[in-house]
Amino acid sequence: MKSLHPLTWWIWSLLIVGAVVSANSSWLAGISIAGATILVWRFAADAPWARSFWFSLKIGAFILIIRTLVGILIGVPIPGTKLFELPILPLPSWLAGVRIGGVITQERLLSSIHEGLIIVAVISLFGAAVSLTSPHKLLRVTPVVIYEFGVATVIATSALPNLVQSISRIRRARLLRGDENPSWRSIALPLLEDSLSRSLELAAAMDARGYGVSRKRSRYRPISWRGIDSVVVLAAFLILSFTLAVFR
Amino acid sequence: MINFSRVSLVYPTSTKTILEDLSFEIAEGEMVLVIGSTGTGKSSLLRLINGLVPHHTGGILAGDITVGGVSTQLVRPGELAHLVGIVGQNPAQGFVTDIVEEELAFGMEALNIAPDVMRKRVEEILDLLALAHLRNRAISTLSGGEQQRVAIGSALVMNPKVLVLDEPTSALDPIAAEEVLSILHRLVHDLSLTVVIAEHRLERVIGFADRIIHIAGDGSAEINLPEEILKRSEIAPPIVHLARALGLSDVGLSVREVRRMTEEIRASGKDIPREVGQLGEIAIRTNKLSLTYGEKKALNEVSTQIHSGEIVALMGRNGAGKSSLLTTLVGINKLSSGSSEINGIKSVDLKGQVRRETVGFIPQEPSDLLYGQSVQGECQQADRDNQSAPGSTFALLKRIVPSINPETHPRDLSEGQRLALALAIVISAQPKVLILDEPTRGLDYQSKALLISLLKNFAKELNRSVLIATHDVELVAELCDRVIFLAEGEVVADGPTLDILLSSPAFAPQVAKVMSPRPWLTVSDVMRAVAE
């Protein structure tokens, strides 16, 4: 599974998102969340970016809860089976048409959950695409113009953890000198010096390794589109056409 | 291959001449070692070879340097990338990408080399440096030795004629250092690569060097065979000091040579009585101390006691949990279970002034402790912190390094002076326990001798305890009474220095290897044994 083209999962997730949105069915949304979970659980590499799916699920759950609460508390009442009733919050007269509280019906609850689920499905499908694709691989299939920019981004992202490390190291050293609440100045100065010397070091290393000497850059291990990629994309495409045909 | 003709170098902000009228030639397939005290310009000399000095640093360069016939003055460093590979002092700071394979390919991509050629070369390097099983790993998860190998690999992958290394083993444990050096040795012999290497710990590299460039510090430099240079040089590995102390006619460079010369001494030397010191009260006590980072166990049920007046070394591979133990002792880490206390105070309760007066800690980068604008400012801050008489910290510092200028910015101090300043600040609070993490990294022999005498005084005269995490077996042999050996977060050996160091060949100091099976660790041990 490792050898899939980096764009495959992105196209796949876009198509499935299209299917979920066009079908507007919470069943399909639920199935696609479950499917994405299985795919990530089964195929994601053990890498930092693979965690983004679980993170997106957490965000999704959070949104679902907030969305449902807001949906049943505020808004237009939908008639139907009454579940329970909340006191109506008195609002000033210029907010006419908005109501907080009131009768909570089963229909109102279900429609809130339904809309929430579709949002969660969209988020988790994007999360799955991020998790299943190495950003470095993705970078390698981008056009050359963006590529230069991308190389800079990769360097910046690998420098960020260093910065975080330096901050905690220096904070620790301040604590050790018995300074329980180190001032920003006493941390910022060594940090600035530290990151400056690091970046100079990095620039020297890149210079010594020939960065920027040639106008053109070649790419290590060009990535090709293969049969399995077409199969995955085609499957997603079929699902989309099916939902378009059936739920119209 | 490398040709320096009448080279002089001056940096713009300094009046000191770094190099003056230096001429030498290095042939293809030679391994040349650059030695000199800290701050004498070893790194500058190395960076002159690929033009990083002065192209990247500024400075005035007179004379001409050519590498493989190309003058470094006329081209940018990047245009020499296919000729000269350079590996910096701290490889982690030079990594550009975060996956091993991509790091190896980075330089070739920049030079627009065809993908199939790149694939082939990367495979070759992965095999050559035994990195194949790490190819898809994130670099940040590798050990120090592996990172050093990746750095060497990413320089070698460009097929350079010259490889330049700045202190390649300073951060490595003895076994990882041995591994890196033997790879270099093989490259010199198999591929006729020219290697220029700067290193403080001569005992590690001296056996591999064909010639030595000795930078004196006043601008002059000498290039000659190792035997010739080491006959006179102040900077010398322990076996050379041994040969001098014993009055041998020749200096041997390998353990084997010196063993042959000292057969008689091994046979006739007397046993030296073991000193059994009185143990003081317990200063550090840990009981079943465990610490976990995420799912990784950094420390696993460490139980130990350290008494006052003891100097203890904490040894073990890179990543064995040494730093974790030290930072837990001083109360920075939250422990998962067990207990640790210093002088009866729980580590986690150490705060502010109490911490300062109980335990002094010198981190791996002593400069982390410093944030003042001048040496004077730092010392005054320490005086205020400790409510001691103004000038007392500076007086202490003066005793350690008499030549220090109070107006200097801490960043501009040499490695040894910076450590001295950090030590003066920490000791001025008169802590009961002193803890140091890798203090000899980047220190020359002179600063190391100073550190040893300072710590000995602190421990023995004031009856305080010292705990040092280090890879430096020579330091341990000279200084420590006891060694605690950690592996995978567990204590695997704990005992007198003599027993621990002699039990494993990789950790035995040079003198002990020469004198094996007699239990003498240092030159002074041997001298005591042969004295009538």
Structure description:
The complex is a heterodimer of chains A (248) and B (532). With 248 residues, chain A is mostly helical. Chain A has helices at residues 6-23, 26-43, 52-73, 106-132, 135-140, 144-176, 184-208, 227-246, and strands at 82-86, 102-105. A two-stranded antiparallel ribbon of chain A has the order 1-2. Chain A starts with 5 loop residues before the first helix and ends with a helix. Chain B is an alpha/beta fold. Chain B is built from 21 helices and 20 strands. In chain B, the strands form 4 sheets. A 6-stranded mixed β-sheet of chain B has the order 6-7-8-3-9-10, with helices on both faces. In chain B, a hairpin with a 6-residue loop joins strand 1 and strand 2. The longest helix of chain B has 18 residues, at 174-191. The radius of gyration of chain B is 24 Å and the shape is globular. The model of chain B has no long low-confidence stretch (mean pLDDT 88).
Q: Outline of chain A, from the CA principal axes?
A: flat
Largest sheet of chain A: 2 strands, antiparallel
Radius of gyration of chain B: 24 Å
Annotation field: number of helices of chain B: 21
Oligomer: heterodimer
Question: How far apart lie the N and C ends of chain A?
Answer: 35 Å
Task: List low-pLDDT spans of chain B.
Answer: none
Beta-strand residue percentage of chain B: 15-25%
Q: Would you kindly provide a brief summary of this structure?
A:
The complex is a heterodimer of chains A (248) and B (532). Chain A is flat.
What topology does this entry show?
The complex is a heterodimer of chains A (248) and B (532).
Chain A: H1 6-23, H2 26-43, H3 52-73, E1 82-86, E2 102-105, H4 106-132, H5 135-140, H6 144-176, H7 184-208, H8 227-246
Antiparallel strand pairs in A: 1-2
Chain B: E1 2-10, E2 17-26, E3 31-35, H1 42-49, H2 52-55, E4 60-67, E5 70-71, E6 84-87, H3 100-110, H4 115-128, H5 144-156, E7 162-166, H6 174-191, E8 194-198, H7 202-205, E9 211-215, E10 221-224, H8 226-232, H9 238-246, H10 255-261, H11 263-268, E11 282-293, E12 296-307, E13 311-315, H12 322-329, E14 337-342, E15 345-346, H13 352-358, E16 359-362, H14 375-386, H15 392-400, H16 415-427, E17 433-437, H17 445-462, E18 465-469, H18 473-479, E19 482-487, E20 490-496, H19 497-503, H20 510-515, H21 523-530
Parallel strand pairs in B: 3-8, 3-9, 6-7, 7-8, 13-18, 13-19, 16-17, 17-18
Antiparallel strand pairs in B: 1-2, 1-4, 4-5, 9-10, 11-12, 11-14, 14-15, 19-20
